[in-house]
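To whoever is covering the structure queue this week,

Two jobs came back overnight. Logging them here so there's a record in the thread.

Job A:
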Amino acid sequence: MGHSLPLELPALSGTSDAVNGEATPPGLRVVRRSLLLVALPMVFVTFGLPLRAQDLGAGGFEIGVLFSLFTVALLILRPAVGWGVDRFGRRRFFLASLACYALTNALYALAEGLWPLYVARFVHGVALAGMLISTDTITADLTDPETRTAAMGSNMASQGRGGMIGAFFAFTLVGVIPLHAWQLSFATFALVAVVACGYAAVRLPETYLPKPDNDAVREFTMPSLLNRLTVVVVIAALGTSFVQPLYLVYLQSRFDLEMRVLAGAFLPLGLVYAILPGYLGRLAQRLGRARSMTLGWVGTGVLYFSIPHLPTLILIIALFTLSAIGSIIADVSRNALVGDTAGTEGTGRAFGRIEFASGLGAAIGPLAGGLVYDLLGKELVFMVTGGFVLCAAALVPLYLRLPRDDCKSMQ
């Protein structure tokens, strides 16, 4: 699966802007408010981009190119951004990402042909690559192992809330002025992203100032634990991305649903990402890194296995939504583990490596899932997804071999 402009934004971590009962660092509050603002188009673009491309004359191949450009940008830039935030600091990359989001939204609004839309989509991938790495490294800088997982969850909640707010705004415009809803929505999103960039430029401090002659920065070696985690992350990402692009296609073909009903099928998922990550992060913090990743992926895998056997649409939506809860628990624990393990001088490169692994799995999964869906059967896609995710869960205790007190002993 990323999105009201009151001066005093609501708390962004469950019911309070705190982590495990402790006051949130001011820098993290700035980051979360910025994330909420730039995530406004996150849900709408998922639905709207293929339809906008069709309006501009795109066929299936051209729509596939749009999504491939986004993935390519992420794959290329994640390791480079990871190196950059270690070498030059976090703040400038975070601000550059916000500026790229403003540019992305402006390009979407102005695109009147396929080639401008391709450019917008590529810039969108650039923006997300910088945002993911800089946000995770800033969070790792400003938290300790006892609060890191909850903080990662609160970051995710900020994006989920932004996506829901933006979707409500954009789909309202679709209902009122459908011919101009795309342009007006993204023009508004671009202005909001400019506000977010200006706000962060004024309020966000630098959280890490590398010294030019620091040998630790230049000679960072990836810890063996993170090399093993890379393998697990590729498998998990391959599994979860196997079915994600086909979920709505499956529902439409099985139940013959209209687009508005399909949009409603995503509403519970959006609410989970908007409300629960802060709470789930605190739950994962108490469970520990290894147990959270294992339980999260086991739950997700079992639920995917169950989906094809369910008789009603409501039950399928419920289980797909519950599977997202397991994924959130596993993902925030994974990110916290990276922050625990890398050390200050290598945090960016460690996150770059792990995000690259996640992106690699996410790039291969939809292609393989589409082949399985077309050639071997719709239901088998969910079975293969469940198998990959359960394999990742099994590798956590068998291959990662984390210490017993795994939220503290990685330092």
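Job B:
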Amino acid sequence: MWNNQNWMYNIDAYNQARAAQQEDTSNSPRYSEVTEFTEDHATSYGQAGSLSPELAALSLQPSPPSAANSSRTSRSRLGSLFGRTSGSREFRSSSETPNRLPGPSTSLDWEEQSLVGAARWPSMYNQSHTDENKDYCRSMYRSSREAGSRIASGQINSFSELWNCATEWRLGRLSYNAPGREAFATQREAGSVFNTKLDMQYASIIPMIISNSKSKRKRYGGPYLSGIECKVYKQKGKIHGQEIPLNELWAAIDQRQVAVKLQEVYNQDVDFEVLEDTLQRNHPNNIVHTDARYLSVIKGHLEQLFNQAKSPLRKREALDLIARIHWWAASAAPDMRGSAAKAEFAARALANAHGIEFPPFRDGIVPDIEAMLSSEKNFVERYSSFMERRPS
């Protein structure tokens, strides 16, 4: 099993290094990521338990060895802070990388670069047209291309290194004293609950949950709004034949029923702050994210997929592996904040390593939401169609 340092930053050390550099005061949050982390679990979804013996055995499988980690003798100041990180800039000789990938080839035009990584929500919540968001997108484009070059040359040799590279980029988009900055470099812990209430831009997901053919009827049993009829999509994956429960997406079938129930609650003599806090974490319109106790198993699987994806492959094979990696990383959401952006960063970096140029995702497509509402097979089959044009 991995040491968590491979997937987590020392945020204090990072801040010290950043303070020595010119401070980046831009603060362009990824608009699809407003998920909330909570310490307690008061919902009706059940308490976290221990892994089954089969899954526990999977989590103990060793990660693939990385020759890069033992052979490096020098690192950049920033890269040395993160353990097995992507921060070092030294290049390897061609004898060390006999199967070197081609690396980035063609380049997107300025307009397309300005949409890379944008969460293109419907109408009023779509922020992709703003100057701030365009700058954020061009930053993802440049940094993911650089990461692709480093995968191709053998400098990034594991998925944990690639994820650290994505984390380094995402932290760089936040000012030094940005509130909640540490959450972008902190892995979720088993036993905690990670959920997203489906309001504002996330309300656009509700019809997708209700219309999904795999969603099942279920009566909500949480506090205050108990009894509301919902549709529930339970996402699952398989690793070496073992089923892994992932996200649960809940949506009330009749939103008017929710409004009536809420009005009844507000008319009661209740503590408003307690009520709002409870409804933020327990609601019939809600995503309950993948239980963190499965993260070690999923990370091991991502390493195995990355090990395959960093080898020379036919374009179709590379695209399928990249789509699988994107699906698992987005579905796992291993960090408290920023996982969706990091998952897309990783997918684009791997595509660039293979000389494949990913255009922006289509208007109305938010890839992490598509992942959570799809099986792995379905997501892989539709992956290229999510983009404005086919990858070149």
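Note for Job B: The chain has 14 helices and six strands.

Please reply-all if you pick these up so we don't duplicate work.
Q.
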